[in-house]
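User: Please predict the structure of the protein below. I'd like the answer in structure-token form so I can feed it into my own downstream comparison script.

Assistant: Understood. Taking the following sequence of 258 residues as input:
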Amino acid sequence: MYTQNIGLKEKLAIVEDIILIDSDGKYGNHVLVPDNNAEIIIPISDEVCFQCIGSMRSLRLLKEQSYFMMPRRRGAEIPLMPKTQCLVIKVNPIYARKISNSKKEISNGVFELGFTVRQQKRLLGFSSIIDRYEASDLLESMLEGVDDLYEYNSTILDSIEHIKDTHGTVSVKEIYSELNVSKSKLEQHFNKEIGLTPKEFCKIEKINHFISIYQSNDLVSLTELTYQCGYYDQSHLIKDFKYFLDTSPSKYFKSLNC
């Protein structure tokens, strides 16, 4: 179903990943690394606070409400109380603007979806990536008010795939040269459709690749991985970590092992 052609276009899964955040009776903070996906957040506990790194303001996400967020430029934190639970559904960024344009904005880049309690309970039945295709089918039916959901910009999709294939190490110049479009046209349409610039998208993809590789290989050193992932030096890596997560790589990974 998800490779079906619609005219000259391919129908893509809406859902990229499904994450259940559960405090498991503990206090702390759950850090959401920016990953270029849009997000649907559904609080299961009474209330969840959501705060982007670098922002002084937090957003209260209420139970029995559903929220849509455009791809984030920086990380975010959800403070965990003993009974904190919420579902985070990662949405393919190619659909981000389509969905947000049809919804009411309640904060900068945050929209109210207006799903019913019954619809939310159906989504809460999905708690793993195994269910992403079924979740995509369900979301498609719940987003039926979104006009031409699958009428996405093929050039933007091609540029996203090129960035992902290179783990963010490709330059913007290489992207628009490869796709035979002007720099200004690519940047204008990319920012309009995704809410990020191509350069921001590349940086976020690169740091996510770094984190993923480091977590899956305990033997590799930070120094070695720095160059493998396309960073010029460690100072370049640390600068990106400071911007996206407000911490250093060593402190970030140490916090995951606590």
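That's the full token string. The mean pLDDT is 88.
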